[in-house]
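Troubleshooting entry. Yesterday's outputs looked truncated, so today I'm pasting the complete records for two proteins to confirm everything comes through intact. If either block looks cut off, that's the bug. Protein one:
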Amino acid sequence: MATRPDVLLVNPSSHAQVYQGLGKNLVAIEPPVWLVLIASHLRAKGFSVEALDAEAEFLSPAQAVEKVRDANPRLVAVVVYGQQPSASTQNMAGASLFVSTMKSAHPEFPVILVGGHVSALPLQTMEEEQADFVCQGEGPRTLAALLRTDLRDALQLSKVPGLWYRDSGRIASTPLAPLILQEEMDAEMPGDAYDLLPMQNYRAHNWHCFGDIAARQPYASLYTSLGCPFHCSFCCINAPFGKNTFRHWSVESTLAKFDLLAGKFGVRNIKISDEMFVLKDQHFLRLCERLAERDYGLNIWCYARIDTLREHHLKIMRAAGVRWVVLGIESHSAHVRIGADKGKFNENAIGRVVRSLQDEGINAMGNYIFGLPDDEQDSMKATLEMAMGLGCDWANFYCAMAYPGSALHATAIKNGWELPSTWAGYSQHAFETLPLPSQKLSAGEILAFRDYAWKTYFTDPAYLERVLRKFGKETHDHVVEMTRYSMKRQHAVGLL
């Protein structure tokens, strides 16, 4: 008879709710990297762990529940983290459906929700969802302490840090678990438990493989650090971690992750999921130097800020296998950026960084947000014009959202602004997407402009010519085909 696992970690599927038809071929299928970090912590503490990635295995909620029944774990932990902080909230669409299906079919299995969204809204989650527990905070230490209890006795539960639970029908909570400190990272989360996942199923973003668009698999993502020292008003990264909690693994520990992915699993397409990879030279630059020595032929992408990326970084990053850097540009207007606590760099600095990346053979992506609090029609148009003039190799266009855990969410609640009626409404691509209004524009106007900007950028003849020249006809034709897809929107209204 198979040994009963202490915990089954579940990544629920939300693709159908949040991507409309894009999820079939265009969007990435990313490994649940926070799930494998939690798994490594629990294994290090002596617990038996299994995992179920319902998204990667294309399972319906009912099919996923049957997998849970067959595994028969002591505890079901639903990990609601996204591949960027905002995705945790949109992934609640799938998590909520999975939990309700689970409890309807097999109420005997205790369920805990873990993730950025539930950490930001623990009481609301306990009130609205059918889960037995909610974790507030990072998760690993809370789950380990919970597994040391019988999962039922209120006195035992009251000693589990970072836990929300029910005591005789009353919702109760405990103080947060201590954060895993810098010097504890290697021991407390030693590596990523990729062996628990269907690694053959993961697929890179289409742009990540420009030039070889058919080579999107295999693919993986990993963290080299956790947390972020910055406090952009639109970001919810601090919800599970707290403020000023940037920590990183040692170079040797992180290299072991790359060795495992490149060696055992043959992965070359890798995302570094860190919110702030390009920050401390002694962390990321030393890692890049060591990766360059290994010469795995990697295709890496990572995030950076305009005001943290330096000229002396680029050659070493390129040698390590960094082929794409994603830049948080957000807006043409310095006034709009400063209002969102997003740096004081100017347009000249943005252009200089983009050109420096491309001169070094690294592709540049620009991220832009429409509808930040100080945005108006003219500033949004200026942002689009800047994006088209910068010559980035790809662009992401977003609407400002009041993600739970962000300063914008607190402001929206305080001012009584309308928020999405469903968790999928916090996605950028769902039918019911509902961004925040700005001081001068409605949510529907901002959403309509975002979709117009996306179409304008990717159908621009100058952009398509750059793609053809740099990446070839196959990639060019892929982009043309991509632009033929139009998303349906419930709330968009014209503003052009």
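Protein two, checking that the full record survives here as well:
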Amino acid sequence: MRAQIELLGVTKRYPNGVEALRNVTVRVYRGEFLAVIGLSGSGKSTLLRCINRLVEPSEGRVYFEGEDVTHLRGEALRRHRQRIGMVFQQFNLIERRSVLENVLVGALGRVPVWRSLLGNFSAELVQEALHNLEIVGLAEKAAEPVRALSGGQKQRVAIARALMQRPQVLLADEPVASLDPATAHSVLRYLEQLNREHGLTIVCSLHFLSLVRRYASRVVALRTGELVFEGAAEEITPERFRHIYGEEAEEVELR
């Protein structure tokens, strides 16, 4: 089966000399829920950002649906990013705006610039935004300001916003790192629903193994920029687990 996403021999060196990824090869298959695990600073965020080209690899190639996207520029890069939604740890929402307005921001790549500047969205886009809010259980909050929401609700708004791109893949960069365990499960259940019921490919960086075992169909693990494991979560033996997390293994396992 051909991979939907391929990172082949990817290395990323930042200007300060830090090598965030070192000769990493990862394949992501259509319709899977891939978890990327590892300590903070292991290269998880860099790997995700190489997929949508927010980060350009120093070496190696990135393919999406068989197309080499490693060095795209301009309109071609914009089209590539439109196919990939992204959810961030810190939500990146406009606090003073309503929930609905924040979700509609996700459609900016699909409407003329003058319409977006005026907030002039069509009735069809508004209905689509309300539908996406319904998917994440927040349709009744559409008119409320984002600042009135809890952290878990804000992350669900961010997911609905990403869905406005009609993405083929959703990247989630530590989406529950700032949430308590119960709320983390609530958010990840919506990602699981999108994956299982809507067939959306999910690539999600996570920190806690219990969450990975509950939600992921496959796992890759990074340590200091290198790929140290790829397979099913249940295949992570205690020895492998200690190699991935070192002294923090017990803390990460307990959550």
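Both blocks look complete. Sanity check on protein two: The CA atoms of residues 137 and 162 lie 15 Å apart.
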